[in-house]
Amino acid sequence: MSKTEIAKRLIAIAIGAAIMGFSINAFNIANNLTEGGVAGISILLKMTFDLDPGLSVLLINIPLLLWGLRELGLRAMIFTIYGTVCLSVSLWAFNHVRYPMDDLLLAALYAGIFLGLGLGLIFRYGGTTGGADIVSRVIHKRTGTSTGTAMFYADIAVLAAAAYFLPLPQVMYTLVAVFVGSRVIDLVESGAYRAKALMVISERDEEITQCILTEMNRGVTMLRGIGGYTRKEKGVLYIVCGRRQVVRVKRLIQQADAHAFVTVMDVHEVMGEGFARQG
User: Fold this and answer.
1) How far is Cα 84 from Cα 172, in angstroms, rounded to an integer?
2) What angle in degrees, to the nearest 10, is found between the helix axes of 74-93 and 3-23?
3) Which of 125, 169, 241, 252 has a CA positioned 20 to 30 A from the CA of residue 197?
4) How far apart are CA 160 and CA 104, in angstroms?
């Protein structure tokens, strides 16, 4: 990895952490909304004991970071350590920023959007903010459990604890914020671009391929398949295109073979010739 790439990642992670620190203080804490993971624990500690979130995030993460260093090594943890420190500093820097709102739904939407934007930026450039991420990675290494599943249960545990300390409406609006945040994370981490993938099964695959190549200048991957019932060999085409091109691609397929079997799938990230490079 070049020095320029490293600097780019460090700057992006710092910006993402700053957005998270602002969001947690301005919207979550100001409106008694918590969050999943260590961030949620720090918010509860702030609400209950008035403990500085920047300090509590760091204190909670120190043993987790040491555990992660022992289990995963410095190379795998370097950007996690950096992201954790950046988040702690950002929480401290924005500690007095508050935007209380009468409409808790609006507050939850703001919290989810900003926190998702910050965390998505951190994830996109290879960082994390420690906490549940470290636990999930260690559990995955030891047991094979997926990191997503481990993080989900960790967040559920924190949100369940929040139900004991917070009124039910705040808990429900917190769930709204978490849901919105998860969608924004996906959007930022994978990029705003969305494509479509078409799988085409046809005996006239050569004609379909030529139509798409000449009419749309779009690449086609040609595969060979065998029908499970007929045992006859058929052509299988894999085509990736922009959302606005799907209708035209399907029309060309129908013109070449009205009996072609076509499936259309969402593609959340595309890298390579003819598509924008991610990151």
Assistant:
1) 27
2) 40
3) 125
4) 20
pTM summary value:
0.76
> In what helix (H) or strand (E) does residue 224 lie, and over which residues does it extend?
strand 221-226
In the structure encoding, which two tokens stand for residue 29, read together?
A: 């804490």
CA distances from 272 to 34, 235, 269, 276 (A): 40, 24, 10, 7
Query: What six digits make up the tokens of 60?
Result: 């909670």
Strand order through the sheet with 233-242: 221-226, 233-242, 195-202, 261-267
String of DSSP letters for 164-204: HHS-HHHHHHHHHHHHHHHHHHHHHHH-S--EEEEEEEETT
pLDDT digits (tens, 9 = 90+) for 208-264: 999 998 888 788 999 989 888 888 888 999 999 888 788 889 999 999 999 999 999
Cα 239 to Cα 220: distance, rounded to the nearest angstrom: 5
Q: What is the DSSP letter of 261?
A: E
Which amino acid type is present at position 2?
Answer: S
Q: Dump pLDDT digits (tens) for 1-45.
A: 788 999 999 999 999 999 999 999 999 999 999 988 889 999 999
